[in-house]
Recover the amino acids of this structure.
């Protein structure tokens, strides 16, 4: 397949989020990880997102190894800053399971939002990726460390890297709507990565984040659009993973109303989940994950499916989202 085989949907493109090849939730061999990345490429995906956080650098190294023989002008890469990876003196040969990654804890994450730390993080990522530049750079999870320092030091440092021509686009990646809105209003960001806060199932980003983006001319990269996999199947399980825990009753009730509309129109739930986020004009990229080649193939096929307009009218009447 070629890139043209994966069309834009409402002006948005499909990207692969490479946390799974950093051994998120389960360990993959190098060969299995390369097969997943190859499936994404074969499906027409040419945009890849990673981070030092994902597998303590393993995701970046594996993605870089995969892209090494690909023409640089044919793909884009984004990564993140804010966490440096440094030797772990307390490493005992265990695994990073507290963060859901099946990787040895021989290095540790060290928060650093200083200008020096931001530049060092980018340099380290480029070395792991084997690239001389990334296309987009995001400050990762600022609300988990120091949002104030993010606004006064980290984001200006990102603006400086863009002014120097070291990256084309800068932004923030977060699951926290308040932090995203504050970042958009506090810096000249090109785009933000909204993780799980604007999906078919829930839209907390609608209140403050989307209006701020419209005011500032900031676009959106939508990630975690399946809400940790809950929307990735036509038969979701009541005991499925949702975010970092179980599925709350109110969320499950909303999901059942969405499923009723899907069944009435014979629209697959994953198709509806992908199409919903792409309908928002601010969304330029939709990021999907996956730890098996078949998942990438299925998601690419779902991306191509057309959803009838009446589906959205009926969904609005069902009011599944508060």
């Amino acid at each position: 397949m070629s890139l043209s085989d994966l069309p834009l949907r409402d002006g948005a493109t499909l990207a692969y989020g490479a946390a799974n090849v950093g051994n998120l939730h389960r360990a993959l061999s190098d060969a299995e990880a390369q097969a997943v990345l190859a499936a994404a490429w074969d499906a027409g995906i040419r945009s890849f997102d990673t981070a030092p956080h994902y597998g303590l650098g393993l995701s970046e190294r594996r993605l870089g190894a995969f892209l090494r023989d690909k023409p640089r002008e044919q793909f884009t890469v984004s990564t993140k800053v804010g966490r440096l990876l440094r030797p772990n003196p307390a490493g005992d040969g265990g695994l990073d399971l507290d963060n859901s990654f099946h990787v040895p804890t021989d290095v540790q994450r060290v928060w650093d939002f200083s200008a020096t730390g931001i530049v060092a993080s980018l340099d380290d990522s480029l070395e792991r990726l084997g690239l001389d530049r990334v296309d987009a750079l995001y400050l990762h999870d600022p609300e988990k460390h120091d949002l104030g320092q993010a606004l006064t030091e980290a984001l200006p440092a990102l603006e400086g890297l863009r002014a120097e021509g070291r990256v084309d686009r800068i932004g923030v990646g977060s699951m926290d709507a308040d932090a995203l809105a504050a970042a958009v209003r506090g810096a000249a960001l090109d785009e933000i990565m909204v993780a799980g806060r604007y999906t078919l199932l829930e839209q907390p980003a609608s209140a403050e984040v989307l209006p701020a983006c419209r005011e500032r001319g900031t676009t959106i990269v939508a990630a975690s659009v399946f809400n940790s996999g809950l929307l990735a199947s036509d038969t979701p399980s009541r005991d499925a993973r949702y975010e970092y825990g179980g599925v709350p009753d109110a969320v499950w009730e909303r999901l059942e109303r969405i499923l009723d509309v899907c069944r009435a129109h014979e629209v697959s739930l994953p198709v509806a989940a992908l199409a919903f986020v792409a309908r928002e004009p601010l969304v330029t990229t939709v990021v999907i994950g996956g730890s098996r080649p078949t998942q990438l193939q299925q998601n690419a096929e779902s991306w191509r499916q057309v959803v009838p307009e009446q589906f959205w009218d009926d969904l609005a009447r069902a009011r599944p989202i508060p």
